[in-house]
Write a structure and sequence with these properties.
Low-confidence stretches: none
Order of helices and strands: HHHEHEHEHEHEEEEEHEEHHEEHHEH
Largest sheet: 7 strands, mixed
Distance between the termini: 25 Å
Shape: globular
Mean pLDDT: 97
Strand content: 5-15%
Helix content: 25-40%
Number of strands: 14
Strand order of the largest sheet: 1-9-8-5-4-2-3
């Protein structure tokens, strides 16, 4: 059996090596390393795949969120509602821009933002909502968008973990997660479902004027070279990464299907076990399993992590410290939060390996050892 990885990017590369190597060589031959043809082609291809008018590539997923908030003209002190149970990048950019993070609860089954908790958190200072499509499952966007419309709020979708996820509305309309709100932001970090071989990110919108603003902010605040209209930043996806992503984009649905197959194996293996709650999938969402995250019931999680490690099985805790408990927000004079669901989840979640190159013998080995421990 091959060594088990949380994400086996090397083996995935080996499957597409000739295409990737040729694409990289083409960029090297062109010497168009920044904003070359590969970047333009990738932006166009990703827009078509996502069903969105505008895709603005950038340097990474954190930049994508920051550029979105800058382009919307959010000002210091404006409140931005976001779940606490997510990676820190979501709220890090809120703090960086001196906006005020407002943490809300998530649904205990989907791990995504609870719309009613969001509604209760809205104040006259609220300007934006940042739902996170966590682990590959879509947030309840139809309800979130309805509430946002009632209060005239921007919605910035953090889609770093759910690219390719379909969201089905109550009328049967299907849209990709990341294309429903005012702006969507995603990451191409190497471990993502659509991962580069370095950093990368992108921003989505259907608003023409907003797309121009996003492009301007990402490019030093300029539309015409050396004429800077607003304070911007320097955030670009380089041509080599775009060339790689162009190849992998064509395989994204296949990659997601492979992850779903891994998840189905785990689900079957753990079905009926009272000590394991496998990932829930809401009727409105497909799940693309950026992570396979399950809940442990009455199991020593640290003990399980150690036991798996002893048997050369990696596992991860996403995320052990929620945003509202991070020291970085101590200077913001935030209220004392009582987010019982979030705290409960941080003590019980564990993620098992899930990626496109997993073999049946690896999955059997992992599930057998998980069950050996939890059933002892």
């Amino acid at each position: 059996m091959r060594p088990i990885q949380m994400v086996d990017t090397k083996r995935q590369y080996e499957q597409i090596k000739p295409e990737v190597d040729a694409a990289i060589q083409e960029v090297l031959n062109s010497a168009a390393y920044i904003n070359g043809k590969a970047v333009q082609d990738f932006a166009a291809g990703l827009s078509e795949y996502m069903g969105v008018k505008h895709t603005i590539p950038c340097a990474n997923g954190t930049d994508a969120l920051q550029i979105a908030m800058m382009a919307l003209g959010l000002q210091p002190g404006d409140e931005v509602i976001t779940p606490s149970f997510t990676y820190i990048a979501t709220t890090e950019v809120v703090a960086l821009l001196r906006l005020t993070p407002v943490f809300v609860e998530v649904d205990p089954k989907t791990f995504c933002m609870d719309p009613q908790a969001m509604r209760k958190a809205i104040t006259p200072k609220t300007k934006a909502i940042v739902p996170v499509h966590l682990y590959g499952h879509a947030a309840p966007m139809e309800e979130i968008m309805q509430i946002a419309k009632e209060h005239n709020l921007y919605v910035i979708e953090d889609n770093a973990q759910a690219i390719g996820c379909d969201y089905t509305f109550s009328d049967g309309t299907v849209k990709k997660a990341g294309t429903i709100g005012t702006i969507g932001a995603t990451s191409f970090y190497p471990s993502k479902n659509l991962g580069a071989y370095g950093d990368g990110g992108a921003i989505f919108t259907n608003d023409d004027a907003l797309a121009q603003q996003l492009k301007m902010v990402a490019n030093h605040g300029q539309q015409k070279r050396y004429y800077h209209e607003v304070v911007g930043c320097n955030s670009r996806l380089d041509s080599i990464q775009a060339a790689i992503l162009n190849i992998k984009l064509k395989k994204l649905d296949t990659y997601n299907a492979a992850r779903q197959s891994v998840a189905a194996y785990y689900n079957d293996a753990f079905a009926g076990n009272e000590k394991i709650t496998t990932p829930y999938v809401a009727p409105y969402s497909k799940h693309v399993y950026h992570q396979y995250t399950m809940l442990l019931n009455g199991v020593n999680r640290d003990g399980l992590v150690a036991y798996l490690s002893e048997h050369k099985i990696p596992s991860m805790i996403y995320y052990p410290v929620p945003g509202h408990r991070q020291d970085m927000f101590n200077t913001f004079n935030l209220p004392a939060y009582n987010l019982q669901t979030t705290d409960w989840l941080t003590e019980r979640v564990i993620s098992l390996p899930v990626h496109t190159e997993m073999d049946a013998d690896q999955l059997e080995y992992i599930t057998q050892h998980v069950l050996n421990y939890v059933n002892q």
